[in-house]
């Protein structure tokens, strides 16, 4: 029975107010569909057509990119910069003494130390030494990162505006402390499109410390699309079971039958799209198609049997355990070599308010080898030259102690947005390089300061994007990742 024409005719008789406005926007809906269907033209934010089948905007990249992809090893909870990346001998000289008031300067902190009047300086609980030809100072808690010191570009003058975790992470990943803006990966997927038809352009994986000492939550808006069409949001790979739900065919359903069902659904959805004009219908079509393709690509992706034992050993003891940071780092390399453009690996466990003496070393042990292995692995495969690897958190930790100096087992550090450090490695950045500086206490960024928006602008520049030109009009205003700020930190560029 040919029921589809009759269905359309019946629906045409029910012209609601929503349908009227929907029809008026059908041109935009069709434009969105064009960015999703293989072989069709892509359409930019202002409706300009392109023959680019990757789904990117027609004028991007704005200039020749230094890198093709980004792997962001985001360390939720904020690693202590003064214990790991920013060596400050003065902390040991002042250990136990009150940090000078002129250094603190009335700065605000979280509620955990906001009313604390006694602020004794806490020396680093690690030991620093110089490594490689670069002489970069790194902690003895991260020996594997130290072994790749000559590949690292360390920024020691980062500063941000948020003093709590969720706003701080959201600010780094979306350019705003409030949820609702597109994440960095979503912006890149929207602007640059995809390099593979078999996997999403933006993939997210999460892990956490085994001791569950850190109460950080992975909110979906950390990889959301905000006001961009939802097809640009990150696809989260799960830490147990099937990486992505509902990829497998139900029992008794063959691939041929499923292909036929998807084709029929696509035709029905296209009819609805033409009638209603909702771009999310186009997203639905694309999601069905991507899920079908991932049925073949994901099982091969997650099968590590083709990895040499030497590579597995390099990533550490947990590499074969799904859901660990080590597993996710190896997955990141495999995703990168298969054309995924933005890979966001998030690991929680760094929020050491009362357990710095015990948990920091454990956290470093779990993340040090996989982080360094990823850089080495990319390098030996020739992928590091066009891949940017980023390692860092949402802010740093206070140079002074949270709590009392006599309670050694409960030593900790509070959130610290005024100066902290992160590192990058790969294409486009100077290897074996240290940029910027904090004061003698690691409290305030004082030399070549780098704001979060500056960092975002620099990452986008490496991908061939002028951060001021990649915009999206929403509710009457043109938005961008860097809001109305951001300068390219050209001094770190190779």
Question: Can you give a write-up of this model?
Answer:
With 494 residues, the protein is of the alpha/beta class. The chain has two domains: 111 residues, no CATH class; 361 residues, Alkaline Phosphatase, subunit A. It has 15 helices and 19 strands. The strands form six sheets. Strands 3, 6, 7, 8, 9, 10, 13, 14 and 17 form a nine-stranded mixed sheet that branches. The protein has a two-stranded antiparallel ribbon with strand order 1-2. It has a two-stranded antiparallel ribbon with strand order 4-5. The N terminus is likely disordered.
Summarize the entry for a quick read.
By secondary structure, this protein is α/β, with parallel strands linked by helices. The chain has 15 helices and 19 strands.
